[in-house]
Amino acid sequence: MRKLLPLLNSGHAGGRSALTCRYRCGDACFHEVPNTSDNEYAGDIIAGVLSRRSMMRTAAVVTVASATAGVVVAQGATEAHAATTGAAAEGRGGHGHGSVCDGARGLRFAPVEPNTADQVTVPSGYTQNVVIRWGEPILRGAPAFDPDRQTARAQAGQFGYNNDFLSLLPLREHGRQVLVANHEYTDEVLMFKGYDPANPTREQAEIAWAAHGLSVVVVQEERRSGKLTPVLRHHLNRRLTATSEFRLTGPAAGSDLLKTSADPTGTKVLGTLNNCAGGTTPWGTTLHGEENFNQYFANGSSATDKRYGIGASATERKWERFDKRFDVAQEPNEPHRFGWVVELDPYDPESTPRKRTALGRFKHEAAQPRLTRDGRPVVYMGDDERFDYFYKFVSSKRMKKGDSRAAHQHNLTLLDEGTLYVAKISGDSPAAEIDGTGKLPDDGEFDGTGVWIPLATGDVSHVEGMTAEEVYVFTRLAADKVGATKMDRPEDVEPSPRTGRVYVALTNNTDRGKTGKAGADEANPRNLNKHGQILELAEHWDNPAGDGFAWRLFLVAGDPEDPATYFAGYPKDEVSPISCPDNVAFDPHGNLWISTDGNQLGSHDGLFGVATRGERRGELKQFLTVPKGAETCGPIVQDRRVIVAVQHPGEVDGASVEKPASVWPDGPGRIVRPAVVAVYRQDGRDIGV
Ligand code: FEO
Ligand code: CA
Ligand code: CA
Ligand code: CA
Q1: Closest residue by Cα to residue 276 from 228, 340, 218
Q2: Kind and range of the H or E element at 380?
Q3: Cα–Cα distance between 185 and 297 in angstroms, integer?
Q4: What distance in Å separates the CA atoms of residue 431 and residue 175, rounded to the nearest whole number?
Q5: Distance CA 527, CA 470 (A)
Q6: Cα separation of 96 and 534, whole Å?
Q7: Residue 616's pLDDT is what?
Q8: Rounded Cα–Cα distance for residues 440 and 428 (Å)
Q9: How far are the Cα atoms of 19, 217, 637 from residue 663, in angstroms, in the given order?
Q10: Atom 3 in ligand 1: which residue has the minimum CA distance?
C-alpha cells in the first residue's frame, strides 16, 4: 500500500510557507495577477561543447595553492549530521519500481519515497557532502562565518544566501571545475537574531545586499568519489552583489527609460537582484535571470509598475530607507534596470557582467541557449508569474569557435543583436474536450502547435504603438498586445542536447479557471492547477530560428493515482509522485532531471529523473528529498555526481533564528544555512548505471 503522508496545511498558493511568499516573491500569490490583458488563450484559437578558449585562458594562470585544509576538517565535523544514506529503503511499497538495476541508463537507482525528513535523503548506495554553505569565505581576506557578528563587508567575501541556479564549467586545473551560483533572495528572520521587520538596521540591509547576487567559486573533485570541496581564495573566486557594477547592453541600453539621477548614461547599474534560474552558454559564459525584482521597489504607481507587480507602498525589507534608488517616487526608472538576463564571464574575474536588453524585461526565471544549424544562439526564457508568457530570442550573429581573444570578444556580443519572440500556443483537440479536470482529450494527448510572434528586432519594433525601446523595457505589455498565450507560471527551460526538444516547467497556477481569469486550455489543462506540468516543444523542421513549433505535454504532475496526471503514457503505477516542477536539467544519458518547489502532496520537495526517449519514456523516479521548508534548486547531473542547491531550509511560518524549524545542515544549536550538496555513489561508480 502507498504510504499516505499528512498534507501540509499551508494556505499559500503553490504550497509555500508565508515566509517564502514574503521574502522570495514579495507575496506575489496574494496580489492580483498582474496580467489583466484580455488575450486569447490556447483553447480559443549544451547544447554545444564549451569553447576551448575558456579552458585555454585559465590554463595559463599559475596554480594557486589551495587553502582548503582547515575548511575540509571543519566540514568533516558536520558531515556526520548532514550525510544520510540508505534512507530510501523506507516504505518502498506502493510504487512498482523493481530492482535497482531497473530503469533507463542513468536512472538505475532505488527511488526515494516521499518523506518529511529534515535532511537530504538519497537513494540507498549513495552518499553526499555539503559543498559550500551560506557565509563560507571564498575571497581572500574574508573572515570565517560568524552569524552573531556578521557584517556587510564579511558577507561580500563570503558565499551568498539562498543558492538557486548552479552552473559547473570546466577548468584546466586537475580535478577542478568552476561553480557559479545564484543567490536569489534573503530571509532576514532566519539570518539575524532578533530581527525586527518594522525596523531593519542599515547594517542588516547592507548585509542583505551583499548576500544577494552571484558567486563564482572553484571546486575540487575528490579522486575516488564524486565529493566536491571549495577551493577557497582561488583567483577566479568572485562575488557579485546588489551593489556591484553591471553594464546594460543591447538595443535599449542608454534609453531615456533607463536613465537615473545616479546614471545619466542609462548603461551603468549597481547590482543584480533575485537571480533565480539561469543557463550556461556554449561559449563559456553563464546566464542569470532577474526574477521577482519588483519586491525591492517601494511607492510604485504607474501602469507599467503595476504590470510588473511593483507595490504602491513600503517594501518588506525597507531598503528604500537606506538608498533612495529603491523608492520609485524618487527614482522612477531604477526598476527598469532590473528584470533582465545577466551574462557573466566566470573565467574573467575583472569583467563587468552585462544585462542583455535584447532578451527583454520580465520576471526572468531562466535562460537556456542552444544553437541553430548555422551556429546562432537561440535562448528560451520563461516569465514566472501566473498567466504570463514564454519567450525566445534568436541571435542574428553566429558563434565563433576557437580559443582566440577575437572569437571570445565576438561571442560576448551574440546576445545583443537579434529578434525577441513570444509564444502563442494552440491545441489540436476541440475546446469542449478540455474540461479543466485534466481528462485527456479523445486524441489521447494534450498537444498542438504554436507560433513565435516577433516583438522586436534590434531597433525595429514589431508591436504597434510601441517603440523598440518600449518593447524591451516593457516586454510584458508588448506580449499582451500581440496575444501571447497565458501560461501556468513558466519556470525553468532546458533544450535536450540529444534531440533539441525543449522542456518547459510550468510550476502551477491555482488561479486558472477562477472567476474572471483564463480557464483551462490544452497546454494548461487543469483549473485551480496545484501541481503543474511539463511541456515538450519541438521547433518545426528542428529549426530553432523558425517561427513555428509543435508541442505536447510530457508530464501532468501530481499523485499518479490521481486520474488528472499523465507521465508521457508510461504506466502510472511505476512512477514516483511529483508536484510543482521548477528547475530542469539533462544528464549525460539524455534523461531529464526535475527539481520541485512547493510540493502539494505532503512530502518535502525533491529531485526526480525521467527518461525522455525509448520504451521507458515517462518513467519518473525520485532521486532525493530536501530538508524541512527547503526547495530543491539548481540541479546539475554529471557522470559521477548530482549537485543540488538546497534553498531556504527552515523557511516555515513562525520560524526565526531563535526558533528554527530545521537543523540542517549542521545540527541542533547551529544556524540553518542554505547550501550546495553533492550526491555520489558509495562505490565511486557513475550515477544511475
Ligand atoms: Fe525563483 Fe520562479 O522561482
Ligand atoms: Ca490533443
Ligand atoms: Ca524557481
Ligand atoms: Ca527554476
Answers
A1: 340
A2: strand 377-383
A3: 14
A4: 55
A5: 33
A6: 23
A7: 97
A8: 12
A9: 17, 25, 26
A10: 276
Residue with the smallest CA separation from ligand 1 atom 1 is 276
pLDDT reported for residue 546: 85
Q: Which residues pair with 382 in a beta bridge?
A: 390
Atom of ligand 1 nearest to the CA of 384: 2
Distance 508 CA to ligand 2 centre (A): 20
The answer to the question of residue 534 being in a domain is: yes
Q: What is the 364 CA–ligand 1 centroid distance (Å)?
A: 8
What's the confidence (pLDDT) of residue 73? 24
Walk along the chain (689 residues) in steps of 10 and give the mean pLDDT of each run.
32 62 75 74 34 36 24 28 37 44 91 97 98 98 97 98 98 96 98 98 98 98 95 96 98 98 98 98 97 98 95 97 98 98 98 98 96 95 98 97 93 98 98 97 97 98 98 98 98 95 97 97 98 96 88 98 97 96 97 97 97 97 98 97 98 97 97 98 96
- First-to-final CA distance of the chain: 28
Backbone torsions φ then ψ of 318, nearest 5 degrees: 60, 35
- Per the structure block, which three cell numbers stand in for 188? 532576514
Of 331, 221, 191, 219, the closest CA to residue 269 belongs to 331
The grid coordinates of residue 570 equal: 508510461
Please tell me if the CB atom of residue 365 comes closer than 6 angstroms to any atom of ligand 1.
yes
Question: pLDDT by residue (tens digit) across 492-503?
Answer: 999 999 999 999
Task: Report which of 470, 506, 502, 516 is spatially closest to residue 385, judged by C-alpha positions.
Answer: 506
CA 270 to ligand 1 centroid distance, Å: 22
Number of domains in the chain: 1
Establish whether residue 184 lines the binding site of ligand 1, counting it when its CB lies within 6 angstroms of any ligand atom: yes
Residue type, 262: A
Q: Which residues contact 578 (CB under 8 A, 6 or more apart)?
A: 531, 555, 557, 558, 594, 596, 606, 608, 620, 622
Cell numbers representing residue 42 in the block: 490556447
Compute the CA torsion angle 117, 119, 125, 128 (nearest 10 deg). 170
Q: What ligand 1 atom has the least distance to the C-alpha of 597?
A: 3
Secondary structure class of 264 (helix, strand, coil)? coil
Atom of ligand 1 nearest to the CA of 24: 1
Residue 473 lies in a domain: yes
Ligand 1 centroid, distance to 384 Cα (angstroms): 6
C-alpha cell recorded at residue 292:
521577482
CA atoms within 13 A on the CB side of 299: 15
In a domain, 153, yes or no: yes
Range of the domain at 674: 18-681
Query: 384 CA distance to ligand 4 centroid (A)?
Result: 9
Distance 526 CA to ligand 2 centre (A): 14
Give 291 Cα–ligand 1 centroid separation in angstroms: 7
**DSSP 8-state secondary structure symbol assigned to residue 683:** T
How many other C-beta atoms are found inside a 10 Å radius of the C-beta of residue 445?
A: 17
- Going by DSSP bridges, is the β-strand pair 354-356/341-344 parallel, antiparallel, or unpaired? antiparallel
- Give the largest Cα separation in the chain, rounded: 67
Determine, yes or no, domain membership for 9: no
Q: Which one of the ligands is nearest to 493 CA?
A: 4
pLDDT of residue 286: 98
Q: What CA–CA distance (Å, rounded) separates 452 from 361?
A: 17
Got the DSSP string for 642-674?
EEEEEESTT--TT--SSS-S--TTT-TTS----
Q: What is the 3-class SS of 590-608, one letter each residue?
A: CCEEEEECCCCCCCCCEEE
**Would the CB of 388 count as within 6 Å of ligand 1?**
no
User: Which atom belonging to ligand 1 lies closest to the Cα atom of 184?
Assistant: 1
Task: Tell me if 605 CB under 6 Å of ligand 1.
Answer: no
Copy the grid coordinates of residue 178.
568552476
Q: Which residue in this structure is represented by grid cell 562505490? A: 683
At 544 the pLDDT is 86
Give the pLDDT confidence score for residue 17 in this predicted structure.
74
